[in-house]
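In the lab's daily routine, each protein ends up as an entry in a very long ledger. A line of letters takes care of the sequence, but it says nothing directly about the fold. The fold becomes a row of whole numbers, each drawn from a learned catalogue of backbone shapes. The protein below has been through that process, and both of its lines are reproduced in full:
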Amino acid sequence: MDESGRTVDEVLAELDEARGREPDPHGAHLFGLTYPTGRADIERLAHAVHDRMLYSNALNPFRFPEQARLVGELVGDVGALVNLPGGGGGSTTSGGTESILMACLVARGRAGARGVQRPVIVAPASAHPAYAKAAHFLDLDYRSAPLVEESLTVDLDALRELVDERTALVVASAFSYPHGVMDDVVAVAAIAADAGAGCHVDACVGGMVLPFAERAGVRTLPAWDFRVPGVTSMSVDLHKYGYVPKGCSVVLHRDGDWASHQWFVYDQWPAGIYGSPAVAGAKSAAPALAAWAVMQHLGIDGFTEIVRDLLATADALRAGVASHDGVVTNGDPVGTVLSWRSEREGLDLYALGDSLERRGWFFNRLTGTGGGKPGLHVMVSPAHAAVLDDLLADVSASYAEVLTTGAVSDNSGRYA
């Protein structure tokens, strides 16, 4: 930091220069971390809401009741999409990790109320690391259930063996981040209910895709949300397929009594009652209100149209990549997450990913740790429709290059 400071233009010029050395979040060449729509109206709306609300503070709903009202509408609308019963509740959070942390906190409180001394979280090996992180933060035990080799869904027999009287929460993914497959939510919820535990459905990725896929008639899905008896909580990220900037997620609880365990309230200090439903105290209302605004703008029909086209793009990408000899799609992905493994000697998919990066495409890597094999991974966004033909052409060129050269990569797998 300079003694005398710098001009606004100087600071912005350096920021632009730094930004220019990184992948463009709007360029449709990334396949995770950002979720571009290619829709100018949606981006203009999100920018306009942030301009208006950037310096707001969502901590105090009594001082800013209108902000609280709109955020309440947002939570209610998301709850309706996943069939939250009347009497349920929830809140916004900064993202999927915080939503998961809150679900685990509530489950810990409920388990403690029935006398469990050290509660346990049981989750598939494909579950997001946020569950292990929550166990670390909340001093819980964590048990990971293996996956079925072919489907890459959680092995129900193995899961059942890991669930016992200390279990606070059992996790199912709808759909999983590594492979995009659906766990058997009905079976997982029944296992949890038999043990007196909660069942959390992680729909951080799928929660704004699956309801509209069902409405569009482009996917026939087993029951996966609050329609399933025994599902006690869910998480849905809006800064993924709700198409708003980071960070906004929603955590939902079937029963209001469960939701009450999420709140922290304290009045033993000089400045009055302090209450918060999640980790953050002071926070901008802009992310949640941007999500509210986009949902108001698009409505059910708008999201359904986007998801119909989005899944057509995903299906075309899935087929195009897997059309190359030895490249095999993992499991039966139902949505926007796709992954592939190599079943051909001499075909290193990490090397294929390296070649694509040299051409400007940033596929993610799967390590195979915990289930499946090493390979490539993508999260498809609406903006990828416009570049699909160029992408598939470059996939073919990279595939030929790797086979011709016998390239092998030392690029380790990493999260997105």
